[in-house]
Amino acid sequence: MNKADKAEKAEKARKGHRPDRASTASTASTVIELQGHIIDSLILPRVWGAIEDAGAHFHVQEMRVGQSELEESYVRLEVSAESEARLADLMGELQRIGATPFVERDAQLEPAPRDGVLPDDFYSTANLPTSVRIDGAWVEVARIEMDVAIVVDRERGVARACPMHTVRAGEMVVVGYEGVRIEPLERPRQREAFGFMQSAVSSERAKSLAIADVAEAMRDCRARGGKTLFVLGPAIVHTAARQYVAALIRRGYIQVIFGGNAIIAHDVEAAMFGTSLGIDLKTGQGVEHGHRNHLRAINTVRATGSLEEAHRRGLLGDGIIAAALEHGVEVVLAGSIRDAGPMPGVITDSVQAQGRMREACQGVEVCVLAASMLHAIATTNMLPAAVKCVVVDINPAVVTKLADRGAALAMGLVTDVELFLRELDAAL
Amino acid sequence: MNKADKAEKAEKARKGHRPDRASTASTASTVIELQGHIIDSLILPRVWGAIEDAGAHFHVQEMRVGQSELEESYVRLEVSAESEARLADLMGELQRIGATPFVERDAQLEPAPRDGVLPDDFYSTANLPTSVRIDGAWVEVARIEMDVAIVVDRERGVARACPMHTVRAGEMVVVGYEGVRIEPLERPRQREAFGFMQSAVSSERAKSLAIADVAEAMRDCRARGGKTLFVLGPAIVHTAARQYVAALIRRGYIQVIFGGNAIIAHDVEAAMFGTSLGIDLKTGQGVEHGHRNHLRAINTVRATGSLEEAHRRGLLGDGIIAAALEHGVEVVLAGSIRDAGPMPGVITDSVQAQGRMREACQGVEVCVLAASMLHAIATTNMLPAAVKCVVVDINPAVVTKLADRGAALAMGLVTDVELFLRELDAAL
Amino acid sequence: MNKADKAEKAEKARKGHRPDRASTASTASTVIELQGHIIDSLILPRVWGAIEDAGAHFHVQEMRVGQSELEESYVRLEVSAESEARLADLMGELQRIGATPFVERDAQLEPAPRDGVLPDDFYSTANLPTSVRIDGAWVEVARIEMDVAIVVDRERGVARACPMHTVRAGEMVVVGYEGVRIEPLERPRQREAFGFMQSAVSSERAKSLAIADVAEAMRDCRARGGKTLFVLGPAIVHTAARQYVAALIRRGYIQVIFGGNAIIAHDVEAAMFGTSLGIDLKTGQGVEHGHRNHLRAINTVRATGSLEEAHRRGLLGDGIIAAALEHGVEVVLAGSIRDAGPMPGVITDSVQAQGRMREACQGVEVCVLAASMLHAIATTNMLPAAVKCVVVDINPAVVTKLADRGAALAMGLVTDVELFLRELDAAL
Amino acid sequence: MNKADKAEKAEKARKGHRPDRASTASTASTVIELQGHIIDSLILPRVWGAIEDAGAHFHVQEMRVGQSELEESYVRLEVSAESEARLADLMGELQRIGATPFVERDAQLEPAPRDGVLPDDFYSTANLPTSVRIDGAWVEVARIEMDVAIVVDRERGVARACPMHTVRAGEMVVVGYEGVRIEPLERPRQREAFGFMQSAVSSERAKSLAIADVAEAMRDCRARGGKTLFVLGPAIVHTAARQYVAALIRRGYIQVIFGGNAIIAHDVEAAMFGTSLGIDLKTGQGVEHGHRNHLRAINTVRATGSLEEAHRRGLLGDGIIAAALEHGVEVVLAGSIRDAGPMPGVITDSVQAQGRMREACQGVEVCVLAASMLHAIATTNMLPAAVKCVVVDINPAVVTKLADRGAALAMGLVTDVELFLRELDAAL
Predict the structure, then answer these.
(1) For chain A, which end, N or C, has fewer CB atoms within 10 Å of the first or last residue's CB respectively?
(2) Structural element, H or E, at residue C378
(3) At A423, phi and psi to the nearest 5?
(4) Looking at CA atoms only, how far is residue B59 from chain D in angstroms?
């Protein structure tokens, strides 16, 4: 295509060939701005794409583009849509990508009508660093997580993320989209172990390299006194990999553990009988119906009254739960409807369990989600985007689902959790 | 191989070539019997296989084999193992396959030491018709399900299946293996739609044929006044298939529904906004972060106080929950830790939810598990083996896991739940 | 974050915090330009990202950004890298994204050293519209496909895409990166059925909507007299869906079919015996080892000498191959090492089969890849990016692999191929 | 159920409740016998099940059952079906399970009508040790494999397995089912690493144990001077695991390699550029379109004329192909239609490639199928059932498909091939 062709094509684009768009009347508009590495971090393209997908329009008012990969850019756009309602919906989306309203106004507030009920038009958060403007001052929202509301205490000048069911009647909740600012994550200037918005995961990559990166992140975290969270699924015991988790606990690499009834019941079964669901962990051989040892293990701990008491009586061996109890690891066990027993210590109420998990998430810097789905989804829902998340599962669908879910710095590893933990322990 | 060779080989087998086995001393033994179509129903081979795998031995005392496919067989075996403990373990397994102790004794009973704690050596059930011998009489165990204990009331001469956490201190629990009889399922004489122990599932079969079989089972069940249970996952709403479920409810094909917070929240979101997780169900188009409508739907129902009240106010449209409320379908919604909200009506305590599900399972004859994993596993744990179970999921791992899980009459369909429900509705 | 904070942050970015980058000496540089909807089509962000990932640098020389979603943009960048070799590698990548060298030079040419061997530094194509500059004039490359060389005939002023093994000694091959221009696909201004670079696929979407879009594309193609290609895997016969393909052939919706030995052997087995791998397609029941009918079907056709002769003798019934022979559909059957037989008509040499497939791909506008992996990968390797590709498979890994593979206008459907074809036939 | 109930139930079974079966007239019958550990090896149950599924009948003429797990059993049955054709079909199936006709007759022979065409009613083999009766003598069939014909040379008194396309006009082919004897595999008396008919595979088992078993089988094989075959997929290079395969070659553990164009092209790309499909194997980082190095590697080897010449010139480094060339490993590279290039040495004709693979399979005792599908399926089609097969893939569907496919002594490992090979190398 020569230059004349190109010019003609551009001209055509300017004029006629999208008449359907030109005819849409826009009756509502606002001005937004974007700042930072907005091009290679995909913020500008995603903002434009979202506007186009919504059938809305934009007009560039000002644009300063960084002249090299080291410089930031700045764009101010007027966005117009066919109604205020559409514009409000679109603005919610643009803010999550990283746009902020150009005209700074205070956030609008409305009181919660009842305990556990938000105002209709409540602002729904992203899991990125977020500030709200209260009485002219920008205030950072504490305990930010995905898809919750923001409650503001104007007197104390503070704001916090607030899950729907925890709001109390009369608390002031941010509504609409004004007065909210989100700091998007930027693309690192160079390749990093924890990929930026890299949801693509593959079993066809060299895992040894990736495991070395995970080990480094955990080593750094321990050195800083940071918290590393492991979310554990029962396959860890079935595959005879509990010893590696126990070793990591003893070596100080794990501060928090989330799991369910199964992982702990299997861990105790392994300690008491040397089996997991009836499979002998030394020989790999099992019986046709192997639930009996599993149930006996639970029953025995129930008879003692608690995991702590069972540990005192020497029933828990040297597995995960024993190591956790000995090393002061915070363990949150959340129950589910498929549980047998359950084990003492398992929180059977899901709302209460979420609350305990939320508390325990505070301060977590690295999170390894290993062969878990239910507990892993619940966890990724709660974590800020900046936490380095490693999702390990042999099922690519699980890895994709979890790596896509909020964590901006996710590493998805489609691999065998037993061999992963063995290598990780060796690499640390 | 000519006859001489064969004879020699058989001779060799009789004599030397397994010296390792002959040397194991057996100090404990008992006699069992098997009756029925034990060869083609794989009962005899599995009994022999289990004995061999356990390193134990058997000796045939009596054997009468059916002379054709119409006649039953009978076998009496002495089983010997190296210790009483080993023998007891093995007997537990053999009973689940279908063996019964030859010498009829009463079941041994021990009191539960504490609320929610069973005696150490409690008998763990299969989900097959089971009887216990009390004071010389065989009594059927009520509410049989997999992996629970049996509580006996000698005075009233009754027995019931009893999940561990529901036992009360002092209740009499069956221990050991004597005095328990299980009626194994037999292989049907001809191919049937609901395969006998057929865990192999495939996406490479003609689903239209299978769907016709499911339709027939549901039609028969409705004609008999039986109960059909649907366990529903949220993909049913994402794929715009809720209309088919609602239609089946209105046509009287569904009596019980199990689900979680997500399926109902999405159903209500679809009714209120025409979207599912922000995806427009009419166009398939969506926004980048579509949780907002989802949360608004939950919040709006919370504001009314209950699903029933929301329905009275006309907020629930004509979807699944609306149809269920209008047609008196029993809906059990069990929460989990990944839930937002939750919706009013969702039971957040997993033990309480299990209890409600157990009640609702009574009398169920057909069960369709559609695009659900957590709720489906919990359900299959509770159902007797004779319930016809249809597992539908696009993920073969889910279908295998569920079809393997107890239900002896399972049909596993690796297919698209939207197209499955559409075809099923059309076939009924 | 207030404006002062933002300014400070930007300042910091400009100065210190990437010292590692500043220290890299760049000794080679060139100038590229980008034109069109380069921001929302992700061309500019991907160019910048590729430069950063390569550890290279850029400097904006000119930038004119479209002021609304209707206007195009233009950017001219200087790209610098640490060596000419690195720069050349990077340029190859940037060109594939859509960059063109600013200074127009003729393409460099070198003769192929031997039959089937390219010059060392051959230019490797993208599957996008590509032109080369020959003696000052831009010439479009004929038969463009992914990952092949470009052979130029200067005398006739023509250029063609050339797979490695087809080059003849002495033919002039484009080397280096100069004088090559690629026209990138641009993001449509509105959502379209065939997603732009949308590799994400999901089983959790409403397939009925998507199937309607596929039907529309096929209807349009037939109305225009265009060619639709179906690539068929054997599951189509196993699932009893061959009738739908045969119907689409008879109704004029399919012009070309690619498949292997298995699909045709199963189609003939179904015609002769009513089975597929021994499974009765009317009842779904089968024998333990069902290969016998399959082998007999192949043997019978072999005895007649050809599919055409078998058809004349009435052996092929009314399935896929019968319909294709009757309606003049071009069928290319490519063999593989797992084949039994093979069927007459199957091309056993893979290079020869590729050649036949390449010919048959010319003019194809819509391509449906149904339950095929080997043949589907081979096909997507050959198709220009502008062909509308629909990938249908129940295995998400297959859909992802194929949808990612070159086709820029791909629709990935994780669904059941039987139910897909049934719906598609009904929707047309 | 008390004894009276049981008797009544048995009586009912004998009389009325299967009237549909009794009414089927049987006009064709024959007598078969079964010998060995036919109950726990599932031979008798499968024979009965197959007869029932076919709607046929049996009558026990003689039955002697082993009195313990050490003794063999013997059964003679009359089998009757509604027609000779049905009976012949059923007999084919029963023979594959392990039944032999009681009356010994010579195998019936018919000449092949044309080159590559078998007689209509040709006998189709199982991959188990098979003998045919020629002129009163039992002769073992050489080169047995699944789903081929048997060609007999009466003069020389020999028989061989014969793929359809290799038969020559006039060669005598076994037809019908008489005079053929198959020796079924028997269940080992104790658990073994290589499971008997154990197609169930799981990622939730301890792989370290299984890998130790594979190592032992390979060590034994090497010690005996046996042949171990590795079938390799390209993921082995992508995951940077080629070094482990090369090490196993150098240590004498691999005698034969099957693979395709991709594995070798990637191996050479890794040697020349340190990348695999453009991914740097040292850092895991890659470019957007990484096929260039891949094509260059192929082109470079093509320029030298052969892999051997490329190796002489030092271009192949120390990877798989270099090690194989240095250690005299037999490498069969079979091409497919998705190949680029192809590499010199790749056999592009699938029939010719099958022939070479068949030759190379002779004498193989252990076979490791690693991250391969096409080549692995082709291989399992050719191997006798007695070869110990290890299927390693991260995709459970692949493992199930391959482990089900004939090999009676298969071990299916759903795991990460990189970590598997690393552990295997360490365990040897």
Answers:
(1) N
(2) helix C374-382
(3) -65, -40
(4) 5
Name every residue whose Cβ is closer than 8 Å to that of residue D333 and which is 6 or more positions away in sequence.
Answer: D258, D259, D260, D261, D264, D343, D345, D346, D347
ipTM of the complex as predicted: 0.89
**Helix or strand (DSSP H, E) at B159:** strand B158-162
Name which of A57, A66, A397 is nearest C69 (Cβ-Cβ): A57
Q: What is the identity of the amino acid at D365? A: E
pLDDT higher than threshold 80 for residue C192: no
How would you class C347 by CB atoms within 10 Å of its CB: exposed for 0-12, middle for 13-18, buried for 19 or more? buried
Determine, for residues D10 and B55 on separate chains, whether the beta-carbon distance falls below 8 Å.
Answer: no
B279 CB within 8 Å of a chain C CB: yes
Summarised one tens digit per residue, pLDDT across range D77-94 is 999 999 988 898 899 889
Alpha-carbon gap, residue A180 to B264, rounded angstroms: 31
Instruction: State the residue for tokens 């209950």.
Output: B306
In chain D, whose CA is at the least distance from the CA of C114? D303
Distance (Å) from the alpha carbon of B426 to chain A's nearest alpha carbon:
31
Chain-chain contact of C337 with D349 (C-beta, under 8 angstroms): no
- E-strand stretches of C38-129: 57-64, 73-81, 100-101, 108-111
pLDDT in tens, A364-410: 999 999 999 999 999 998 999 889 999 999 888 788 778 766 556 67
Angle of the D207-223 helix axis to the A417-427 helix axis, nearest 10: 90
**Measured CA angle at C152 (ends C146, C155), to 5 deg:** 160
D422 neighbors D241 (Cβ within 8 angstroms): yes
CB D152 within 8 A of CB D109: yes
Of D40, D59, D66, nearest to B49 by CB-CB distance is D40
pLDDT digits (tens, 9 = 90+) for A202-221: 666 778 888 998 999 999 99
Residue A65 is predicted with a pLDDT of 85
* Among the partner residues B122, B292, B299, nearest to A117 by beta-carbon distance: B299
D255 — pLDDT class (breaks 50, 70, 90)? very high
**Low-confidence stretches of chain B (pLDDT beneath 50):** 1-4, 6-7, 9-23, 196-200
| Contact state of B284 with C206 under an 8 Å Cβ cutoff | yes
**Which A residues 232-271 touch B at CB under 8 Å?**
none
Task: Please answer yes or no on whether B45 and D40 come within 8 Å at the CB atom.
Answer: yes
| B86 backbone dihedrals φ, ψ, rounded to 5° | -60, -40
Query: Considering the entire predicted model, what is its pTM?
Result: 0.90
Q: Shortest CB distance from D53 goes to which of B2, B57, B191? A: B191
In this predicted model, what pLDDT tens digit does every residue of D30-67 receive, in sequence order? 999 999 888 888 888 889 888 988 889 999 999 888 88
Q: Does B1 touch chain D (CB under 8 A)?
A: yes
Q: For residue A392, how far is the Cα from the chain centroid? A: 14
Query: What is the number of residues in chain B?
Result: 428
Encoded tokens for B358: 């157990």
Non-local (6+) Cβ contacts of C212 within 8 A are: C427
What's the rounded Cα separation, in Å, for the pair B421 and A404?
28
Distance from CA of D353 to the nearest CA of A (A): 27
Among B residues 71-130, those touching chain D with beta carbons less than 8 Å apart:
71-72
- pLDDT-above-90 percentage for chain D: 61
Quickly state the pLDDT bin for D1 (edges 50, 70, 90).
very low
